[in-house]
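Input sequence (390 aa), recorded before submission:
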Amino acid sequence: MLSARSIVLTCLFAAGLAQAQPVVVLTPEAEADVSAADQKRADDLKGEANGLFRDGRYKEAIDKFSRAFEIVRDIELLYNIGVSYQNLEAWQECVSFMERYLEKASVGPKRDRAENTRKSCEARIERDQELTIESTPTGARIFIDDRARGVQGTTPFRNYVKPGSHRVWVELDGYEPTDQTIEVQKATPFRMNVQLSQVQNRGWLFVDATVIDARVYIDGKNVGLTPFQAPLAYGAGPHQIVVEREGYTRYASQIKVEKGRLARVDAHLVQTSANSTWRSPLGWTLNVVGFLAIAGGVTAYFFAEEEFNDTDQFKQLALYEKLGYGVGGGLMAVGTGLLIWDSVRDVIAEEHRNPKYGEPVKLQEGVSDEPPTAVRFGAGPGGISFGFSF
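Predicted structure, token format:
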């Protein structure tokens, strides 16, 4: 057993260790700064969430409200999250957050509203049934009963529907859409898993542009920069193509991809503001000289009018007149042609030029069946052109 002296020494040693440990204590001013920074961040998140809620973007609003709650633990945010879930018709989540809010909410009109919301969502749970839809691959768009209502969500999808018959569409770009009628029972959650098949009714689309690093949009989606390395597989049907690069003309067209065919888009982009070359100054010089020559011919004509037409002086002035008209007109024609040539010529900066422009197209790796026909669509300053190769 330890002696009394040993116990006393042990206690003193422990106390000394405790005193040796550094203790970080924030001043009231520092604690206020930290608290103010947290509150500011939470207020910013809450403001963003309120804006998203007003726009009907409830899922994004829930994320912002939740992040704000993690910072300040304000129970009013629980109420906002619950109402957001109610608008999403996610009844179980609505009940859960309203119950958390009611645990600490003070008596008042807002507490009554929360209680009514909780009861309403509970009633929907009892009346409606859970519907879960999963797909392979995920991210498919879900439509239920009425397509005019728009997309109800994406897979994996979970919501509540009334028991009974429902029509469900599952759609994903590049895959065959599914359309099923399901029967939801009152007492049993309904779960469906859809295996999507890639679109077989497809063709190939290749965008060829005169410049590199041009952004290519197909059906409004940015699919990359030029030059493309290989054609892209797309479902048969019309597709909107836009090709653009800053400082160059914009190409926009709609083409139709046909099954088993390669649709090649010829996007002819040129600089919007071309720099002048030697043609412009030479053209202006020839125009000025030509104008002076014609003016000399006119002057010779007036002097010739003062002479008899059988004199040598008259014949010489008549020759000068013809030379002035002929030489001046020729020079002005050449000068004007040079000016027009310089203004309408296609200009592409050498460092922006696509070295692969116009080269034969190779199909993507793994595609073994050659497309039987290639259809070429193009549009340049001169208009639209079509071409076929077999």
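Checked by second reader. Confidence is low (pLDDT under 50) at residues 1-27, 364-390.
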